[in-house]
Structures are given as C-alpha cells and as structure tokens.
Design a protein that fits this description.
Elements lengths: L1 H8 L4 H16 L2 H7 L7 E6 L16 H19 L3 E4 L9 H10 L4 E8 L12 E6 L6 H10 L15 H31 L4 E9 L11 E8 L3 H7 L2 H33 L1
The chain binds zinc ion (ZN).
Length: 282
C-alpha cells in the first residue's frame, strides 16, 4: 500500500517508476552485479511503433480499395521520421515492409527490447449499416475484463510469474511475486491510460475524432504486462471522407505530428535528460 501510494504520488514518468519497481523486485531476487549493471547510464527510451496487419492480412479495405495495411505502414513511417527528427527517443517498428507478423510476436518485440511504450496504428471499418455515419479517430487501451475465452486464456498465461517482466524471481515466495506483478500491471495500466489520453488530446486539435474517442477493448497487441500500450484507430476506411484523407500525405503528417507530441508528453523529462546525456557522453 505504502509503496503503491508513494509511486503514484510521484511526478516521475511512468517508465521510470516502472524501472524503480523492477529494481525493487531485483533487489529481492538478484545478486549485486546484476543490480550494478542495471544502474548503467540511461539510454534514450525506445518507442515501438506497430503498423497493423501486413502481408496476407490486408486489414480493413475502403470503399475506394485502400488497404489498411498500407495506410498503417505509411503512418508508422511518418511517425518514426517525426520522432527520430526530434531525437528524444529511439524507434523500432514491428514491421517495416509488407510482411505478416503475428500479434503475440509484436507484443514480444516490445517486451524483449524493454520498450518505454508501444503504439499500435490501425484504421477502422464500420459495418455497412453504420458506414455512412462512423468516422474519426479513436484510441484504445486494454479492457480490464477478458472479453472472451481466448483473452482469458492469454491472461492466465501472462499471469505465470516467470513470464511477466521477463524476470525470474527464484528467491521470492509465490505470494510476494503475485503482489509485485500486480503492482507492475497496475503501473502499466496507468501508463497506458495516460498515453491514450495524451494521444486523444493531441489528435483533437488537428483530426476529426469519433464520439467518445477514448475506448477500451481486449486487443491482443495491448496485452504486455510491463509495456504501456495504446492502439490508435486513425479514421474509418469505410467512410469516404476519412478514406480520402488517410490517402493524403498531408493528413497523415498531421496525425504523425500529433502522435509524436503525445509520445513526447508521455516520455517527459526522462527523454530530454537521456538525450542531453547522450550528447555529453558521446
Ligand atoms: Zn486494424
């Protein structure tokens, strides 16, 4: 209780607080040299961008034939360019070409590389009876409750102690593991919500939004227990106006700039400090 409260009250960026939690776990489980390694100078935080679909999976297809997988890749490349231009983070893509990447692999890529956040990029399609009305961007976080048996099974697997955080905690009792992991999930969930709010606020200035743009659903790609994650539906390919806009580089640039602003807001002072450190040390 005391720990959770203190961490929530702090104004440090979520990722840094998460690192603190990992170190707290490590202090109980790891020998000293591992801790010393963990205290190396901070590197620029890694942002993982996830262009939805790809390869044999085209995603949604617009009335004019636009394929979601093409729009998401174009957007992700725009966002990467904007982020790299600002120099406050490193950027990795879950795919950089027209290839099929399983959802779980996308999550694993972010977890293995200890990403500060994962942003999954999609474009929506509404069922035919709503296609004329539904338009605008929206941002999803993971829903609290599993929406189907598959999601429930995934959640059970994720709950296995030695998977979460990629950590092995041999000398800690299962009960303590459970508490620490639940704290980590709580931190991650709070980070995901913050990221999604920042994205909606940034998009709101420049891009039409869906009514109630902050949404929740059980997307597999958002299920990392230790990487704050949000999924952006950048518009409806089933709406002719949105589809036409998503095909325009100028409109995509607006979305990319807004999401870059959101990512910078999320990374906060941590990324500025790391950038200055990098400049100083070489
Ligand atoms: Zn999609």
């Amino acid at each position: 209780m005391g720990v959770a409260k203190r961490m929530r009250g702090s104004d440090q960026p979520t990722a840094l607080r998460r690192r603190g939690l990992l170190l707290a776990i490590g202090a109980a489980a790891l020998p000293a040299p591992a801790l010393a390694q963990g205290a190396a100078r901070p590197r620029l935080p890694l942002v993982v961008l996830d262009p939805g679909h790809g390869g044999r999976d085209p995603g949604a297809i617009g009335a004019a034939g636009t394929q979601e997988k093409q729009v998401t890749l174009a957007l992700a490349l725009d966002i990467r360019r904007a982020l790299e231009g600002a120099g406050r983070c490193r950027v990795a893509l879950t795919r950089s070409g027209d290839s099929f990447v399983p959802l779980k692999r996308r999550v694993d890529m972010a977890r293995e590389r200890e990403a500060a956040l994962l942003l999954s990029i999609h474009a929506d399609a509404a069922p035919r009876e709503h296609a004329a009305q539904a338009r605008g961007a929206s941002v999803y976080t993971l829903s609290e409750t599993a929406s189907d048996p598959l999601a429930a099974a995934l959640a059970r697997r994720e709950n296995l102690a030695d998977r979460a955080g990629g950590l092995r905690l041999p000398s800690v009792s299962p009960e303590v593991q459970r508490i620490l992991l639940s704290l980590m999930r709580q931190e991650t969930r709070a980070g995901s919500e913050r990221l999604a709010r920042l994205a909606v606020n940034a998009l709101d200035d420049d891009v039409p939004l869906l009514r109630q743009p902050l949404r929740r659903a059980g997307f597999v790609v958002l299920k990392a227990p230790d990487v704050p994650s949000a999924l952006v539906e950048c518009g409806f390919l089933s709406h002719p106006t949105d589809e036409a806009a998503l095909r325009q580089p100028r409109h995509r640039a607006r979305i990319a700039n807004a999401l870059t602003e959101a990512v910078h807001g999320f990374l906060g002072r941590r990324s500025l400090a790391a950038r200055d450190d990098d400049a100083r040390l070489g």
